[in-house]
Specification:
This protein is an alpha/beta fold and 468 residues long. The chain has 15 helices and 17 strands.
């Protein structure tokens, strides 16, 4: 069995922004090489297109609705226990470097040591997103366009510190070291959309393409409510959009540079042949597509993320079309130590060696700020279905319509496909029951934090400050 595991997670890396995925401008040579020497999963979804719930599901290997990690306040506390606890109990050193977005350092999240950890702000998180039926204003959205540029930010400096620490730690490993799992969690390419000049200067502004998907007016009320809440788009004209997209592509290259440093340290330690490497991201980035920015929506650029597996007995140069999810990483890690589990996911090592299963369902859900109702997405084969509780559904044939431009959610001609997709969704979750639980949990939190007035006066932010 594989002795060690290295998991590298970025933040907000859309699946298309990879050289090996065919992007014409993004420079990711280290990730491309990792994929060439291993297996890339072409259909990976996040369990929720927002940091805190996605990372709670990733840490436990369980769906958001199963563990009640509904939003950016209800962060993982280490309960229920996750793959970190299981690997620590099996005798592994379990290290984290960088962003966690768990609740606080006081909680036992299973790591034997945490280096430069980022928890949710103040141990309470993004309180202003809790009132969903009657949301508070979110003027902080304007910061996204205001902060576009070139140069260092608190986030790029943080990533440099994380990378330095991970490199130093890996460089000190040897065959005599106890077996380990290292989680290296970078914040790039998450906004602020500004990268070190060296990486921005590589991309001529005139060569930056416009968004792949043009502005599309939302016809679904649940989607339009989200668009009006997350008014990132209000700060972007054509020029600002081009500058922001260049900065994002440069941040992807900056992130790849740091991944390369970490992989080089692993190579230099002499343990590469004994180590399973996983690369992924917590969620995607819309990047101006459809006129939208950031994440939270159920469109592909928001829910789809890269997933690369490299290591002993992993097929080289393979691209797998089987749907996978961040919750599959927990069984993947446990598999290396022969640890049994009852989690819903499967080890990626197995999926990498089996024939493609295009009918394995992809699944994601969202219950956080900006949403007037719970949204649940499922994809089986060529059909993608989005269930908005108490609102009309969306349905797309993503084989013929990969940009999700033709909504067949209420089309009589697509009723059979819609019913089949909804059945697949309900085999995973009862959306109405989950929606009710999410709202009840959030209403209790609103009361506990002093009601709407308490939330209105709470610390406000657009992205989590870096730790001191």
């Amino acid at each position: 069995m594989t002795r060690n595991v290295l998991v590298v997670m970025s933040d907000e890396h859309q699946a298309r922004a990879l050289g090996c995925a065919g992007h014409p401008l993004v420079q990711t040579p280290h990730l491309d090489a990792l994929a060439a020497g291993g297996t890339r999963f072409d259909r990976c979804w996040t369990p929720s297109p927002i940091c805190v719930p996605a990372r709670a599901a990733f840490g436990t290997g369980r769906w958001v609705h199963d563990i009640g990690a509904w939003d950016s306040v209800q962060a993982w506390t280490g309960e229920p226990a996750g793959w970190t606890h299981a690997m620590r109990n099996a005798g592994h050193q379990v290290m984290s470097f960088g962003k966690l977005h768990h609740r606080s350092a006081a909680d036992d999240d299973g790591f034997t040591d945490r280096i430069q950890p980022m928890f949710i702000a103040g141990g309470v998180g993004w309180l202003q997103g809790l009132p969903r039926r009657d949301p508070l204003p979110y003027p902080e959205a304007a910061e996204l366009a205001d902060e576009v540029g070139s140069g260092e930010t608190t986030y790029t400096r943080y990533d440099r510190r994380i990378t330095d620490a991970a490199v130093d730690w890996l460089s000190a490993r040897s065959d005599d070291s106890p077996p380990w799992v290292a989680f290296v969690s970078l914040v790039a390419p998450h906004y602020p959309l500004s990268a070190p000049d060296e990486f921005t200067d590589r991309i001529p502004l005139a060569e930056v393409p416009p968004p792949e998907i043009p502005l599309v007016e939302a016809s679904n009320p649940a989607v339009e409510a989200m668009r009006q809440y997350f008014r990132y788009w209000a700060g972007f004209d054509e020029e600002r959009t081009r500058e922001a997209r260049r900065a994002y592509f440069a941040l992807c290259a900056w992130m790849d540079h740091n991944v390369g440093r970490v992989l080089a340290a692993l190579d230099a330690s002499g343990q590469r042949d004994d180590t399973l490497v996983v690369y992924t991201s917590d969620h995607g980035e819309l990047l101006g597509n459809r006129g939208l920015w950031a994440k939270s929506f159920m469109y592909e650029d928001s829910v789809a993320v890269p997933m690369i597996l490299n290591g002993p007995d992993v097929p080289a140069g393979r691209v797998v079309d089987t749907a996978v999810n961040l919750i599959d990483v927990a069984p993947t890690i446990l598999h290396t130590a022969g640890i049994d589990h009852t989690l819903p996911g499967r080890p990626l090592q197995q999926l990498a060696t089996e024939p493609d299963d295009v009918d394995r369902p992809a699944f994601s859900e969202y219950h956080d700020g900006g949403s007037v109702t719970g949204s649940f997405a499922v994809r089986t084969g060529e059909w993608k279905y989005v269930h908005h509780v108490d609102h009309a559904p969306e349905l797309y044939n993503v084989a013929d319509d990969p940009d999700e431009l033709v909504d067949l959610g209420t089309s009589a001609k697509a009723s059979t496909e819609r019913d089949r997709a909804e059945e697949a969704l309900r085999s995973i979750v009862d959306p109405e029951a989950a929606n009710q639980r999410a709202f009840a949990s959030q209403e209790a939190l609103i009361e506990a934090h002093g009601g709407i007035d308490g939330l209105r006066n709470a610390f406000r932010f657009n992205h989590t400050p870096v730790p001191d």
